């Protein structure tokens, strides 16, 4: 087995890659509008009630319709997953890992098709879609190798006449609930982490991006995953989500999404239901209010570039996005001016056109939420760029910069999840770190500085799960920058890290005398 290395990003300046992407788009356009069933124990189940997935950049274009699980179907899927666990939990870890390796190579072969689907279903510009697909491949490759590392447990000591072992065994049925903003990588990563560790899964993808999840289940089937190990049950969060989270046979929930839904799941999962004989585990990766701090001794061009790219990449719809910049007063005006200039240069439009840096936000609800925050921002800061939006064809919100915002302002505190950045001034570096920490979240952050002592101070005092120096605050890579945050950003599970798989297993000690 070759050592793990992350999947390279595609160079779209090369004509052959451009052509491959266009071919991917043509493939996806060939299957737009199809209907997708639920998958329970390998069986295709079609329901009358359907979820419709639309293209956010052409809001009437249907990507596909997907059957919608009811409580009865969710119950059926739970029974199948529970039964299948008896078999899958006994399958050798090497065989489970092989399914992931094979799935990775199938996706690699269909890489441009998957990225094109992300462009159409989630509104991802080419490079963002390519990164999402690459990350899905990375999760498969990385977790397969991690499982092979953990398959014989960890070394413990034994005394003379004694043989002690410390092994990991799977937990049971896991409910995987995924978000729409990394509809491939996070959906696939959270699913396969549960699967490779010997658990069975009920996957409830986000309702705005269910088609890519269906296509992924087909890949797992092609890779040899037995029926019933992953069951595809899209549905209403409130109805099916609550039912499955509450279910006494649910052993764990792996959730990625907003703070409020994460807290609700955590609370409900803590309730003991009739027939339940365990405490459910909850892995919850939630929102962020992420900050780039700019010191006075810093590469100011790098600072401005980092702010703009981290704030507006994929329209700011990343939990890691830079939604706040805190700049030390000595260099404040210069950096703010450059951020405004760079933002004005950004190109916005349909994501199928590779010349567009930015496209839409995901749907009407997001459009309304973000534009209402822009109105709030107008009362809280100085609007430098943007502040406009257009939903006549798709959900376009223009990149928006507010300067001179007070640290206590709502746009400095609340997750907007759109292309809006608030900039605040700090009198010195210490105050900048203080402002950055003044949030209930703690996901990502970046510091742009040439001052080594300030950098080390931030390393200790900037309280975020992923802290970056002299770069932007998005774009963690599986196996290189394990990802997850503190406080209201979740349980800090560190997806793509060396401890992640253990969250899906329990350790068993055996001690034999001879
Ligand atoms: N920390 C991370 O790693 C990370 C990664 C991506 C996104 N996010 C966060 O996700 C949010 C954006 O994603 P979103 O809008 O899809 O989040 P969301 O919380 O609205 O939805 C996430 C998932 O939860 C489901 N859901 C909704 N209500 C539910 C309920 N009552 N029970 C069970 N499931 C329910 C949704 O259908 C969806 O599948 C942002 O806050 C972002 O910061 C965090
Ligand atoms: N892991 C991604 C963010 C995932 C959440 O949206 C990043 O590092 O930018």
From TrEMBL:
Q: Any idea which UniProt keywords this protein has?
A: NAD, Oxidoreductase
Gene3D superfamilies (alphabetical): Aldehyde Dehydrogenase, Chain A, domain 1, Aldehyde Dehydrogenase, Chain A, domain 2
Q: List the catalytic residues.
A: 285, 319
Tagged with keyword NAD: yes
Pfam families for this protein: Aldedh
Which pathway does the UniProt entry assign to this protein? Amino-acid degradation; L-proline degradation into L-glutamate; L-glutamate from L-proline: step 2/2
Q: Which reaction does it catalyse?
A: L-glutamate 5-semialdehyde + NAD(+) + H2O = L-glutamate + NADH + 2 H(+)
**Superkingdom of origin:** Bacteria
The record's section on PROSITE patterns has: ALDEHYDE_DEHYDR_CYS, ALDEHYDE_DEHYDR_GLU
Molecular function terms in GO for this entry? L-glutamate gamma-semialdehyde dehydrogenase activity
Q: What InterPro entries does this protein map onto?
A: Ald_DH/histidinol_DH, Ald_DH_C, Ald_DH_CS_CYS, Ald_DH_CS_GLU, Ald_DH_N, Aldehyde_DH_dom, Proline_metab_enzyme, RocA
Q: Which residues form the Aldehyde dehydrogenase domain?
A: 49-509
What Enzyme Commission number does this protein have? 1.2.1.88
Q: Which HAMAP family match?
A: RocA
Family per similarity comment: Belongs to the aldehyde dehydrogenase family. RocA subfamily.
Q: What is this protein called?
A: 1-pyrroline-5-carboxylate dehydrogenase
Write the lineage as a comma-separated list.
Bacteria, Bacillati, Bacillota, Bacilli, Bacillales
Q: Which gene encodes it?
A: pruA
């Amino acid at each position: 087995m070759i050592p793990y290395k992350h999947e390279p990003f595609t160079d779209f300046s090369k004509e052959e890659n451009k052509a491959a992407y266009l071919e991917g788009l043509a493939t996806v356009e060939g299957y737009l509008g199809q209907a997708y069933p639920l998958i329970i124990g390998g069986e295709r189940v079609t329901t009358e009630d359907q979820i419709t997935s639309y293209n956010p950049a052409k809001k009437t274009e249907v990507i596909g319709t997907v059957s919608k699980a009811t409580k009865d179907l969710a119950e059926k899927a739970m029974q199948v997953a529970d039964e299948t666990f008896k078999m899958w939990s006994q399958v050798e870890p090497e065989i489970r890992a092989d399914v992931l390796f094979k799935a990775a190579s199938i996706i690699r072969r269909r890489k441009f098709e998957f990225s094109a689907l992300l462009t159409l279903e989630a509104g991802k510009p080419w490079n963002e879609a390519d990164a999402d697909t690459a990350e899905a491949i990375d999760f498969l490759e990385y977790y397969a190798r991690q499982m092979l590392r953990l398959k014989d447990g960890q070394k413990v000591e034994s005394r003379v006449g004694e043989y002690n072992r410390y092994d990991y065994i799977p937990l049971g049925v896991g409910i995987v609930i995924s978000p729409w903003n990394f509809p491939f990588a996070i959906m696939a990563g959270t699913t396969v982490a549960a699967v490779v560790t010997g658990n069975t899964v009920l996957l409830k993808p986000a309702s705005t991006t269910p088609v890519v999840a269906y296509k992924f289940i087909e890949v797992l089937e092609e890779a040899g995953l037995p029926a019933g190990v992953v069951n595809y049950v899209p549905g209403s969060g409130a109805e099916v989500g609550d039912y499955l989270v509450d279910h006494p046979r649910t052993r764990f929930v792996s959730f990625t999404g907003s703070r409020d839904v994460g807290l609700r799941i955590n609370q409900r999962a803590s309730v003991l239901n009739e027939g339940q004989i365990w405490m459910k585990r909850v892995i919850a990766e939630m929102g962020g209010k992420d900050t780039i701090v700019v010191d006075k001794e810093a590469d100011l061009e790098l600072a401005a570039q980092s702010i703009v790219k981290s704030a507006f990449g994929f329209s700011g719809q990343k939990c890691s996005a830079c939604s706040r910049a805190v700049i030390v007063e000595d260099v404040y005006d210069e950096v703010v001016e450059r951020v405004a200039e760079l933002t004005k240069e950004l190109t916005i439009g349909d994501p199928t056109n590779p010349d567009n840096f930015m496209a839409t936000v995901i749907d009407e609800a997001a459009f309304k939420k973000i534009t209402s925050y822009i109105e709030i921002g107008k009362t809280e800061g100085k609007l430098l760029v943007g502040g406009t939006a257009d939903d006549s064809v798709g959900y376009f919100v223009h990149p928006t910069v507010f300067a001179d915002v007070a640290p206590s302002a709502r746009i400095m505190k609340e997750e907007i999840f759109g292309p809006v950045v608030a900039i605040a001034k700090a009198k010195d570096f210490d105050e900048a770190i203080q402002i950055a920490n003044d949030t209930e979240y703690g996901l990502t952050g970046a510091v742009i500085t040439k001052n080594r002592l300030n950098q080390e101070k931030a390393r200790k005092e900037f309280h975020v799960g992923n802290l970056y120096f002299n770069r932007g605050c998005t774009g963690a890579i599986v196996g290189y920058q394990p990802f997850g945050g503190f406080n209201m950003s979740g349980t800090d599970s560190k997806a793509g890290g060396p401890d992640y798989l253990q969250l899906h297993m329990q350790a068993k000690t055996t001690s034999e005398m001879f």
